[in-house]
Amino acid sequence: MSAPFPTRRLRRLRKNEKMRNLVQEVTFSVNDLICPVFVQENLKSRTFVESMPDIQRLPLSDVTQEVQSIKDLGIPAIMLFGIPEKKDEYGTGAFADDGIVQKAASEIRKSFGDSMVIMSDVCLCQYTSSGHCGILNGNIIDNDSSLMTLSRIALSQAASGVDIVSPSAMMDGQVKAIRNALDEKGFSDVGIMSHSAKHRSSFYNPFRDAADCAPQFGDRKTYQVPFTNPREAMREIEMDVSEGVDIVMVKPALSYLDLIAKTRERFNVPVSAYSVSGEYALVKGAAKQGWINEDEIMAEILYSIKRAGADMIVTYFAKKMAEYLNR
Question: Which one of 87, 103, 176, 251 is the catalytic residue?
């Protein structure tokens, strides 16, 4: 007499934790995490970012202590963002030899040697009086003059000890311009992780609070990718790959998992994803209200980004996720 139900039961592989671990398909480790670090020029003490609970702007004097805490969790990489004391129309603080990111990178390299991968944001929005990511010609972002400035920023950061520069301005040709500048000045071993498909997104709003970089007029629709155009996003990534990028990035992450998956399928380069400030703030806000379990939601989101195809994730949950994984 035949059994009333099929004998194949997928629940057999879920019956206990050891069995579930044995057949787990997507894995996550602290080696997949990149931790953002905000450093503010002439800041006297740490200040919390109101719209991003637990995230702080650091004075230069606290940077090595913060990086040590990140290193102690096993996280292999940081991404530096600088907030200057003064801004101007040309964003000169971004490429100054004594700029805040340059000072921070130099201190970190001196203290940690090669035991921490130092990445740095290459953009102008924090440094320009306009709050835009490029140099203005009237009220228009001048792509080509912006390329020259972005190259100067990358060179100054490379000279301070950065391992990977990360252009996020979304200027056409930025990878090629920066690669040529780095190679010509002897920094051929400095990598480029481009914010290749950086979308025009409201998920960035808390970051603008953290980095003091909201545009003073207009918006960034003329240079960031519309969230309605997945084929255009793929063309942006294809352009960066053709220009010699080392790592591509899709940004934001959670609402763009389809694009992360397409990028993984189409391009044979490392893929990063940036789980941005709005994604972080939504989870923190809901957790504060008691509506969700923060750790469980955090892990589910970050695993989903890995499942989509990201090799590494820039996330404000980096330290908390490392603690979760280490437990």
Answer: 251
